[in-house]
Amino acid sequence: MTEIELVFLGTGGGRLATITQKRRTGGIRILSETVNAHVDPGPGALIYSLNMNLDPQKISALLISHSHPDHYTDAEVLIEAMTQGTMKRRGTLAAAHSVLFGNEICEMSISKYHQGVVEHVIAVKPGVEFEIDDLKVVVCRAVHSDPDTVGFRFETPNIGDFAFTSDTEYFEEIKKIYQGVRLLVLSVLRPSGKPWKGHMTTSNAMKIVEEVRPEMAILTSFGMQMILRGPDHEAKLVEEKTGVPTVAAKDEMHISIGEEIHIGTFEGKQSGLDSYMNSRI
């Protein structure tokens, strides 16, 4: 693996951003020469995939961090795409316990039928490790209103690690969990001064970025108050405070991770995967 790409099919989060689609809620696609995975396929994941010429039938893995609609809603239809209309048993579904079985707060989010057509089903919890081709996934702790929520750390054989915190509030252990990652994607629902239990604000993001000190930080999963305040403004505050390059994700933004980290739009991407992608979509 010489390069990996993240494509943001959505950068919104929370109830109001989801129901208004002021920011899309399609999740994140992870692509390389061997990997085609979708993380947290919320409302619109299918449509936005098709609009961006990312064939959902090429997906080989779905990762779902918790059982809230902005993170799982399109999972079943993407499972049907991944399994070629349920005609071929293939792919991996790695999802929080609440998503697969429910818990005291949330009902199960993916039916037994849909779980049954996937080749591999993994109930993820902190400490669990698994592989998607040559991408190693380490499941990380999160603190959220769904107690089974997790984050994901991705370890590559030769280009370093990157991670997605999913929805979480700040907790002391988080700096150790993500230490050493090159790229850290943080779910930042609200701006500073507008705390909401189980979620991160800009000030929380500042603290985490300052402690972890990744090569680059990306803010995403914006709630309505964050959208109204201005995510670019909030990202600038994080960068000024920490000295770490920090970017507010935008819908359809792509990030390529190789020897360097590059940011662009998906249509105009700078990576060396162009010929490969043309053959895959």
How is this structure best described in words?
- This protein has 281 residues and is of the alpha/beta class.
- It has a single domain, classed as Ribonuclease Z/Hydroxyacylglutathione hydrolase-like (Metallo-beta-lactamase, Chain A).
- The chain is built from 11 helices and 15 strands.
- Strand 9 and strand 10 form a beta hairpin.
- Helix 8 runs parallel beside helix 10.
- The longest helix has 12 residues.
- The protein starts with a strand and ends with a helix.
**Mean residue pLDDT:** 94
Major sheet: arrangement of strands: 6-5-4-3-2-1-14-15
CATH architecture: 4-Layer Sandwich
Measured as a percent range, the helix fraction is 25-40%
| Rg (CA only) | 17 Å
How would you sum up the global shape?
globular
CATH class: Alpha Beta
CATH superfamily, called what? Ribonuclease Z/Hydroxyacylglutathione hydrolase-like
* Proportion of residues in β-strands: 25-35%
Whole-number count of domains: 1
Q: Give the low-confidence spans.
A: 268-281
The largest pleated sheet is described as: 8 strands, mixed
* CATH third-tier fold name: Metallo-beta-lactamase, Chain A
